[in-house]
Specification:
- Chain B: Its main location: membrane.
- The complex is a heterodimer of chains A (284) and B (321).
- Chain A is an alpha/beta fold and 284 residues long.
- Helices cover 35% and strands 24% of the residues of chain A.
- In chain A, the strands form 2 sheets. Chain A has a 6-stranded mixed β-sheet with strand order 5-6-7-3-8-9, sandwiched between helices. Chain A has a 3-stranded antiparallel β-sheet with strand order 2-1-4, covered by helices on one side.
- In chain A, β8 and β9 form a beta hairpin.
- In chain A, α3 runs parallel beside α5 and α4 packs across α5.
- Chain A is globular, with a radius of gyration of 21 Å.
- The N terminus of chain A is likely disordered.
- By secondary structure, chain B is mainly α.
- The N terminus of chain B is likely disordered.
- Chain B contains 14 helices and 1 strand, in the order ααβαααααααααααα.
- In chain B, α4 crosses α8, α5 crosses α6 and α6 runs parallel beside α9.
- Classes of the chains: A alpha/beta (284), B mainly alpha (321).
- The interface between A and B is large, with 80 and 63 residues.
- β4 of chain A pairs antiparallel with β1 of chain B, so a sheet runs across the interface.
Chain lengths: 284, 321
């Protein structure tokens, strides 16, 4: 993962969220994930083993030294065999500690990371709405809005039509004409959110998007997400804030070390997860 | 068809109090059942290579995205300077001056050519377009990883737009190149470079070279995406090609071996250099040659077709590293 995950708590009273809808078991499936495995190839990281080296002959030491600097490729198993079925109209929260594979799972489901093993079946075009969706730092906000919009599958006319709306919503004003590398991290995140929220997808995936910006912007983005949520078929939400997850989702998946350890009604899984967090906090 | 949703039997009581991590959920449906479920509801499989026809259609649908991405990148390249876009002309002009100085006045590597400044300026600029396109194509996946990881689109957009971006950089450079070639005709001891209708043939020549470059970019984009080490080898291949294509010297007067002469004359880069020179220069040693035009077309089409197929076959692997 190249992007830093943002750890963030939303105050429950800040949230004015639409209650999750009730889903019947026989609703049409919109997403089927079958035994999904994601293995990353990571270059440039290898344990050099200086601490555990035994007393070897000089030649062997030299050989080992040489070998440990060549071919430093390691594999990271981020997702290890997850299966589930999501249905139309469901909002599903994904919880888990940092590095448990939540974002990877979401990206694989959105078709951004090809599975190493297993398959993902989707109805329509999924779209990932994330503060992590980085655009191009060298280009102005204006160009980035055009690029982002076209990448999401809009036509240039559609992007131009929603340009003012995007700028207004992000609240960055005239900064939109400066290169994005001049933005504060909050401004960049707001612009990215505004771009990705301008299209309504069949399956909406939100990766920590509620963690963007100040209190005012958070209220605005919550409103926008609710609006998209009403139009989108299925919603996925990755968040570290259990308050958000509980308020928005009817069903919760708990991912731990790349495996799905719980899948059920939001209240039950959140309670389990809370107990787990409390216990690990007590330990440390 | 009604299938029970896969939810774990409610046994949270124990772990909710102990805080232990529960055992992984065992799926209630087998792979076959899941596939069947997906198929009966018409779901589309993600993260697999789409059929060729669909892939081409998707790529065509993103043509505006490709062009905007290319234009923005070519523009951003010069934006970090005080003089901004003026550098798109200054850069090639300085480049040309260097070559004029070294090869026009100090060295003589182009025996038999009436105007060796034009010969070398045309050669270096044309080769530069090829060289930069391949370098940009090789990095096209890794330098756009952020885009790859956040939006879903046919990845062939990336090498295509990288080369298109080089084309946008090469257009002002071509104007500078022509100005230098024309100007060199007024120097003493240099044949004049008349502006004739043949200059118009430069457009198809550059178009063929552009297609050929996109084809090469497809090849290296896939190779480098899967084995990043190859990116270190590309500069050496480029240097080999530079010396083997007669960029700054004339092949016919320096190579005597019949076999090598044939290879060096008809390999793609040398063919494109010949086409560009034959369009601009009015030199008896570089006449218009229909045979070379055919060769140019063959190289361009075969590289872009084979390169595209090769790139498409790796589609499901880009973005996992």
């Amino acid at each position: 993962m190249t992007d830093a995950e943002i750890d963030y708590e939303v105050d429950a009273e800040d949230l004015t969220l639409a209650a999750p809808r009730e889903i019947r078991d026989d609703a049409k499936p919109s997403l089927v994930v079958d035994d999904l495995h994601i293995t990353y190839r990571v270059f440039g990281g290898k344990k050099l083993g200086t601490a555990t080296q035994r007393k070897d002959s000089f030649v062997r030491k030299l050989l080992n030294q040489g070998r440990s600097h060549v071919g430093s490729v390691s594999e990271v198993k981020a997702v290890k065999g997850i299966s589930f079925v999501a249905r139309h109209g469901e909002s599903i929260g994904i919880v888990g500690i940092n590095g448990s594979g939540k974002s990877t799972l979401l990206r694989a489901v959105a078709g951004l990371i090809p599975p190493t093993k297993g398959s993902v079946y989707v109805a329509g075009e999924p779209s990932l709405l994330g503060v992590n969706a980085v655009l191009m730092g060298d280009l102005s906000g204006e160009r980035n809005i055009m690029i982002g919009g076209l990448a999401l599958g809009m036509t240039p006319q559609e992007v131009e039509a929603s340009f003012d709306d995007i700028v207004d919503f992000s609240g960055i004003g005239n900064f939109v004409y400066l290169p994005m590398k001049a933005y504060s991290s909050g401004m960049a995140a707001r612009l990215r959110f505004a771009i990705s929220a301008s299209a309504v997808p069949d399956i909406l995936m939100i990766d920590e998007a509620l963690a963007t910006g100040d209190a005012t912007f958070r209220n605005k983005s919550t409103e926008r997400i609710n609006k998209i949520r009403e139009q989108a078929g299925t919603v996925f939400l990755v968040s570290h804030s259990l308050a958000t997850v509980e308020a928005m989702c009817s069903r919760v998946l708990w991912v731990h070390q790349g495996e799905l350890v719980a899948d059920g009604p939001a209240k039950e899984v959140c309670a389990q997860y809370k107990a787990f967090v409390a216990k690990s906090r007590a330990k440390s | 068809m009604t299938v029970p949703t896969q939810r774990k039997a409610p046994a949270p009581a124990a772990s909710a109090t102990t805080g232990a991590v529960p055992a992984p959920v065992t799926p209630s449906l087998t792979s076959d059942q899941l596939r069947h479920l997906a198929e009966t509801h018409g779901l589309k499989q993600m993260g697999v290579r789409p059929p060729l026809r669909e892939y081409v259609r998707n790529l065509w649908a993103r043509r505006q995205f490709t062009a905007v991405l290319a234009r923005s990148k070519a523009y951003a390249r010069n934006q970090t300077n005080y003089l901004g876009q003026l550098w798109s002309l200054l850069n090639p002009a300085l480049n040309a001056l260097t070559y004029v100085l070294i090869f026009g006045f100090i060295l003589n590597t182009t025996k038999g050519v009436g105007n060796h400044i034009a010969f070398i300026v045309l050669g270096t600029f044309t080769f530069r377009f090829f060289d930069q396109s391949v370098a940009a194509g090789a990095k096209s996946i890794s330098s756009n990883m952020n885009l790859v990881r956040s939006v879903h689109f046919p990845r062939a957009v990336l090498p295509t737009s990288s080369v298109m971006s080089e084309l946008f950089t090469a257009l002002p450079a071509t104007i500078v190149m022509l100005a230098f070639a024309f100007g060199s005709g007024f120097l003493p001891d240099m044949d004049s470079i008349p502006i004739t209708w043949q200059w118009l043939l430069l457009v198809p020549a550059m178009a063929l070279l552009w297609l050929f470059n996109i084809g090469c970019a497809f090849f290296v984009a896939r190779w480098v995406a899967i084995t990043p080490d190859l990116n270190n080898v590309i500069p050496f291949v480029m240097r080999l090609l530079m010396y083997g294509s007669g960029v700054i010297w004339t092949i016919s007067t320096h190579v005597t071996n019949e076999f090598w002469l044939k290879i060096l004359d008809y390999q793609p880069v040398a063919v494109f250099l010949y086409l560009v020179r034959s369009c601009v220069m009015d030199d008896p040693t570089i006449p218009q040659s229909p045979a070379r035009w055919v060769w140019g077309a063959i190289w361009a089409v075969s590289f872009i077709v084979v390169g595209f197929l090769l790139f498409w076959r790796g589609e499901e692997r880009y973005g996992r590293d």
